[in-house]
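Aim 2 progress update. The chain analyzed this quarter is reproduced below.
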Amino acid sequence: MVRGLLWILAAVLLGGIVHLSTVLAMPQAAKQDAYSRLAPLTPVNTMVPLALTKAGAEIMPFMDPAFATAVCRYDLSGGPLKLIAPVSQAYTSVTFYTRRSVAFYAINDRAAGRRTIELDLMTAAQHAQVPEDEEITAADRLIIESPTTMGLIVLRALAPESGLMPMARQALATAKCQIQSQ
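Predicted structure tokens:
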């Protein structure tokens, strides 16, 4: 009786280990992650508005049709990146993802407190090389450290009514994501 319970306990424990390791390894093994799906559509270090989503034909899963979306596939090996994104009338958000689709920073128009969201994206090594300027405060220059040299920046603008979608798309069309000139 005890021997049978030990075998059952061992089988449950082994099944749990296999299940947990499979769940943790799945994102690394996925072939069609967000970066891979967007690579053919977006040049590096350029903000590209995505086509409007239609049910069943989304570029990415779970895309909300009430949001206009633009994506910048970044590569920081050429230097720090400057992002300038005008905000829409309703709501605008910017989310930063690593190459493996891990979100590491997000900001919205209310947190930015301005009519444009301006920030610098760089690696920790590039940030260490930035000279300290006493006249420029953290409020003047928002610097985001990326844990990887490659990743995605996703910019979303809300269109609360379908008639406001052209206005949201226009706000995204003027967004820029480019390597900073020295």
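The first strand starts at residue 47 and ends at 49. The radius of gyration is 21 Å. These observations will guide the mutagenesis experiments scheduled for the next reporting period.
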